[in-house]
Design brief:
Number of strands: 10
Number of helices: 7
Oligomer: single chain
Amino acid sequence: MKREIAKRLLKIKAVFFRPDRPFTWASGIKSPVYCDNRLILTDVEVRNFIEEAIAETVKKEFPDCEVLMGTSTAGIAHAAIAAHMLQIPMGYVRASAKGHGRENRIEGKLELGQKTVVIEDLISTGASAVDSVLALRKAGAEVLGIVSIFTYGLQKGKDAMAAADVKHFSLTDFDTVVGEAAEDGYIEGDDVDKLISFRDSL
């Protein structure tokens, strides 16, 4: 499945490679790869394939899941579609509490002790996903784990998940996407070493 997801992300040009002119993430990290999973939503075939994969991963890895919670904002649509397929409730976690109305951080009904899986579009350092997990735990949810579409596989991200004691499953990963990109001619063979060096540096 990892290779199939990688092929589809490359097909819809959701992955951008710039080994010599890195992209700057919000965290300030300079990355030679940028993954824009929002583009999944605009391609019906790829969207259906990926949402089914999310739903199947939740069923397989977290069979006791009672509700999906998307991360704001990129995980919301994926959580909604997958929850519809699974016929379970969904909601989402804001990056911070609203400054008006009920001042919610978590949107949607969440019961105390409800078994919850977080849906994230991608994992880099893991900071935002773990922050959502902690917010849900604080609200009384039993967080079973995280399902993401793509992970960079950074050690920082792995360490963040371990520190938060949360399981994480991703549909595809950095190494698989880079391997498929090289095989299908999206990048030159010489660029692969640069990309893997970036991954290993963090």
